[in-house]
């Protein structure tokens, strides 16, 4: 009797074990399916106070605004939702929807004081942008093809634009001034990794020289006021990263494309026209690096760009029609622009047994958005230096509380521009 009970008990246990294994396999399969979905995002909420006037004439009549009161503002620079999915067999997709400065709020109201007519009102400014929307086929780690709307990884900030990847409350000023940032285009990308190297090469629409200006060089060149992006000319962007030393990354990136006549309409110029043969060839080269260990974080970059036919482009831009609704600036554009920056942070909690981090940092930016072509007057306020210092507190790797104080230094005939800013930021994944 005891033997029969023992056999029955053993058999029942065996059946239960099989059931448990089957359930575990089902759970593993479910987990595997769920892990194909990637959900994440990042965001920033900021308060800043500027101890200078932001009047548009503060550079042309600097003496009038020497003692002008400053101003404060609250801002939501970026709020982003990222979604991705791995279909298997090497196929995957990625999307990134960005709300800048709170998005755009608009409403239609019926105005009783205006005979009941309907009127559209903008309640808050801002932008909504589809920053990424791509399909990817991965053949192996060293060779992947990505097509759709993609980030152009030229420069340090475009490649590392999450708010937990830089110390300042707002994105680093130099690169954010002279280049599109975050720069995203619709095109095709080849990328891969091998050992300590990562490469990426992209074919994308060229920038539009009609949107270049003196204050931001080619920053607005990737924008489009239309429902589509003009693409009469194509450009190439490339990046290569090396991580052969633990904690160190060094990178080279660049861009090459013709920007003239890359708009909604093109003009065929005769041989007698001053614009005949103009291409507006834009070349940008960038070096950036980052070093991190338990105690220190050191990052820096140098960018230089040259615009061919800058004098002709400046003449054409200044002569563009001023009819109502014209979306183009009417300023000259520099033949070149450059920026350099360095930032160093020390983790004050490195000597404690904690995953939290408290960085005390200092940063230096120096950039010039307008180096004029021959025959054009220099714009002295376009060259700026920025000194800043502050703290970044990371209670978790995905969350950073930031505080910063700094001053923008201009040529002696202008007023310097001090400021303070605080912000709370996050970047991470909910499902991965």
Q: Which runs of at least 5 residues are low in confidence (pLDDT < 50)?
A: 6-32
Strand content: over 45%
- Strand arrangement, largest sheet? 1-3-4-7-8-9-10-11-12-13-14-15-16-17-18-19
How many DSSP E strands?
19
Helix content: 10-25%
Rg: 27 Å
Order of helices and strands: HEEEEEEEEHHEEEEEEHEEEEE
User: If helices are DSSP runs of H or I spanning 4 or more residues, what is the number of helices?
Assistant: 4
How would you describe the shape?
globular
The rounded distance between the terminal residues' Cα atoms is: 54 Å
Largest sheet: 16 strands, antiparallel, barrel
Question: On the 0-100 scale, what is the average pLDDT?
Answer: 87
Main structural class: mainly beta
Task: Describe this entry's structure for a reader.
The chain is 12% helix and 48% strand. By secondary structure, the protein is mainly beta. The radius of gyration is 27 Å and the shape is globular. Strand 9 and strand 10 (197-205) form a beta hairpin. Residues 6-32 have low confidence and may be disordered. The longest helix is centred in the first third of the chain and has 34 residues, at 2-35. The strands form two sheets. The chain has a 16-stranded antiparallel β-barrel.
């Amino acid at each position: 009797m005891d033997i029969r009970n023992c056999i029955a008990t053993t058999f029942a246990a065996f059946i239960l074990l099989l059931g448990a294994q089957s359930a575990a396999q089902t759970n593993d399969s479910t987990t595997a399916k769920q892990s194909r979905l990637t959900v994440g995002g990042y965001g920033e909420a900021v308060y800043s106070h500027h101890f200078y006037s932001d009047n548009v004439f503060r550079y042309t009549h600097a003496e009038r605004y020497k003692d002008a009161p400053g101003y404060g503002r609250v801002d939501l620079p970026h709020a982003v939702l990222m979604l991705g999915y791995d279909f298997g067999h090497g196929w995957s997709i990625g999307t990134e929807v960005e709300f800048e400065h709170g998005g755009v709020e608009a409403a239609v109201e019926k105005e009783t004081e205006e005979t009941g007519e309907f009127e559209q009102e903008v309640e808050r400014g801002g932008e909504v942008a589809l920053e990424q929307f791509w399909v990817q086929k991965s053949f192996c780690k060293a060779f992947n093809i990505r097509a759709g709307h993609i980030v152009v990884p030229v420069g340090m900030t475009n490649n590392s634009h999450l708010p937990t990847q830089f110390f300042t409350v707002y994105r680093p000023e130099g690169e954010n001034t002279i280049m599109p940032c975050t720069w995203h285009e619709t095109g095709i990308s080849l990328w891969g990794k091998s050992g300590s190297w990562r490469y990426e090469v992209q074919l994308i629409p060229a920038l539009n020289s009609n949107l270049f200006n003196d204050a931001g060089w080619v920053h607005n060149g990737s924008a489009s006021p239309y429902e589509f992006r003009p693409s009469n000319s194509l450009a190439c962007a490339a990046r290569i990263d090396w991580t052969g030393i633990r904690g160190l990354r060094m990178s080279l990136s660049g861009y090459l494309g013709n920007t003239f006549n890359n708009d909604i309409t093109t003009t065929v110029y005769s041989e007698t026209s001053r614009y005949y043969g103009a291409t507006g060839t834009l070349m940008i080269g960038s070096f950036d690096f980052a070093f991190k260990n338990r105690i220190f974080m050191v990052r820096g970059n140098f960018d230089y760009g040259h615009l061919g036919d800058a004098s002709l482009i400046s003449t054409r831009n200044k002569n563009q029609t001023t009819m109502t609704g014209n979306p183009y600036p009417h300023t000259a554009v520099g033949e070149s622009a450059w920026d350099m920056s360095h930032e160093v942070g020390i983790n004050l909690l490195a000597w404690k047994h904690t995953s939290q981090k408290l960085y005390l940092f200092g940063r230096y930016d120096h950039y010039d958005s307008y180096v004029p072509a021959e025959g054009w007057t220099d714009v002295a306020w376009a060259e700026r230096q920025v000194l800043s210092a502050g703290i970044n507190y990371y209670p978790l790797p995905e969350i950073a509380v930031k505080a910063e104080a700094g001053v923008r230094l201009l040529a002696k005939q202008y007023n310097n521009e001090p400021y303070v800013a605080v912000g709370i930021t996050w970047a991470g994944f909910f499902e991965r």
